[in-house]
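haha ok so turns out i had the wrong file open the whole time. this is the CORRECT one, sorry everyone. sequence first:
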Amino acid sequence: MALLLGVDTGGTYTDAVLIRDEVEVIASAKSLTTRQDLAIGVGGAVRAVLAEADVAPGEVSLAALSTTLATNALVEGQGGRVALIYIGFAPQDLDRHGLREALKGDPALILAGGHTHAGSEAQKLDRDALIAFLETESAGVSGFAVASLFATRNPAHEVEVARIIQERTGAPVTCSHQLSAKLNGPKRALTAVLNARLIGMIDRLINRAADTLAEIGVEAPMMVVRGDGALMSAEQARTRPIETILSGPAASIVGARWMTGAENALVSDIGGTTTDVALIERGLPKIDPEGAQVGGFRTMVEAVAMRTTGLGGDSQVHLVTEGLSGGVTLGPRRVLPISLLASEAPEVVLPTLEAQLRAPVVGEYDGRFVRAIAGQPAVGLSEREAALLARIGSAVHPMGEVLRTRMEQSALTRLVDRGLVQVAGITPSDASHVLGRVEAWHKEAAEMALTIFARRRVGSGDMVAKDAETLAQMIVDQLTEQTALTLLESVFAEEAQSFGGDPKELARHILLRRGFAGHRGLLALDARVNVDVIGLGASAPSYYPAVGERLRCTMILPEHAGVANAIGAVVGRITQRRSGTVTAPSEGRYRVHFDTGPQDFTASEAALEALEDYLRREAVQAAEEAGAEDIHVHVTRDLRLAEVEARQVFVEATLTVEASGRPRVAHA
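then structure:
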């Protein structure tokens, strides 16, 4: 008998599940995610699930971790301070693919060097400029990203720059050629920057999770879920954390398929921070050929084709002041629910809300609180940011007591972006407490906070709602509407026959809205989503039946929908892919672009065989290091040929080798 332990660290909850022999869920449990120390939440969930199943820790055969941490960090703009070394590119290339936006003011060095399309050196590498940059800019940098012109044709300059950085700073370095074998330098650079930004965060998570499992007595090897739903070793995840973006959502797809056996379905997974929508086609998650897109950034990471929206149970509620009627909208930021904060710090939250309720006028920051997240490295802060963080200290504060000037609002936003401070405010979770749908935290605090918010004025001068219950229903209705729109955008994006418009605009088109309402006039209009939707997430049973009614589709809510990510984490396969290219710089010469540098052959088949052998060894070795057994290898050749004077001429070839197997488990 093999006992498999799956753990998912989400924005709000950490889930754990035990599966026997890959066929039966025998126990599941939840614990609040503790951002100040993720190990507390992991330990709480694991101990609870072992106790529920009455299983000794030593009986666990395999542990696997999925996480929305990287996804949430990119959606919310969080992560460590990084530096980009951009070799052989022009300064204007920083504006391509959102690279400058991703840097968020962090330092970048445009360095002479780089290679040509054929792999020969375009310019000599300017080592002196690199060393001078490191002497002035390396302080407070948690990770370096290195991207060189045509590094996938010859990575020599990236390798040399990484060596110098590590010798002089000891900081982790991400080289772009290690993340993708594809061309498009700015996009590779963007992926490397995001990877470098995530390294410290994911490393802390994996280390603390591994230490916690060891303390509990779980000695089984630990795996981590990648963004395509496959498993990788914890060590691989430490160096390539960018591959864990969409890890949690990808695991939920695998879990949805395992629970329902669905061949074709939309999967919608609502968490605390995001709603993730993906498609199962012919029993497999659909992969995004253009690379994962998260938080507005299109990366080169192979991942499930998924639309991730900042919409969840803990999404911030905003007042709509445009127009006379007003209303509310949700997200994309996550805030700490007032009901949760009140259960943790009632001595601050309850008296503050009571005082704000007695006030004749609603203050700008009423019903909102801030607290620092302990244990996070506070480096690279401005003087104003550092002073604000020191003022917050280790306590919970009403926001109005902390922000003394309007200029400090941007400083607070920056601290939140860096993961140093949490903001608390009303959320759909609070609304569910007011409506009696959820009883997990402090209902009275939620009612007071919603009453305060309901007194805010819209464009007509009227209050946004007459009482807390009315506002709570407005918030839940808005969650239903935004979820339905997110699903419709995904449907239009994935539709086989394109409608020729922006999915976001099509989802909101008046004809579609009338069709869902069953319009009958001179026209008869009917519309529905023509595929089943699998609703996942702990709050899915509360919110998603209304979404199914709105879209006139079958809504499937599996028994273990609340722990689908944890299930998917442990029933996946280990898969490692390696890709490489063969080019033809001149007639009769076939150049293989190895990681160690280019090598020429006189016959195309000899070049292809040499590259395939090399990639096969690399992929199989990586799969074995990740803990795979019974490895199967699949090779894909993408040949580009041109017809010249009635004969086929070799232009270029891309080879991809995939090595896949089940994780090794110890059977009790």
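The mean pLDDT is 89.
again sry for the mixup
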